[in-house]
């Protein structure tokens, strides 16, 4: 079995290789940017839906049926 120092060296080497591979790709930053913008738009849409539901529910409860 490997000791902790050897495992740490292997992990650092692997992370360096992954980082180098990610930098070699041309769309590395674009993908992250797209995911973040999409997530922000989803949060915004859910907030708008929540506000609309709250307003419609309040109006529906205000209707006098008696």
Mean pLDDT comes to: 87
Q: What can be said about the biggest beta sheet?
A: none
Q: How much β-strand is present in the residues? A: under 5%
What's the N-to-C terminus distance? 79 Å
Order of helices and strands: HH
Structural class: mainly alpha
- The number of strands is 0
What is the helical fraction, as a range of percent?
Answer: over 70%
Alpha-carbon Rg, integer = 25 Å
Q: Helix segment count?
A: 2
Describe this structure in words.
- With 66 residues, this protein is mainly α.
- It has one domain.
- 85% of the residues lie in helices and 0% in strands.
- It has two helices and no strands.
- It has helices spanning 4-24, 28-62.
- The longest helix has 35 residues, at 28-62.
- The mean pLDDT is 87.
Structure characteristics:
66 residues; mainly alpha; 85% helix; elongated
């Amino acid at each position: 079995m490997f000791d902790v120092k050897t495992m740490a060296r292997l992990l650092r080497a692997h992370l360096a290789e992954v980082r180098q591979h990610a930098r070699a790709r041309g769309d590395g930053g674009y993908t992250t940017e797209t995911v973040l913008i999409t997530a922000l738009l989803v949060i915004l849409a859910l907030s708008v839906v929540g506000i609309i539901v709250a307003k419609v529910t309040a109006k529906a409860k205000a209707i006098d049926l008696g």
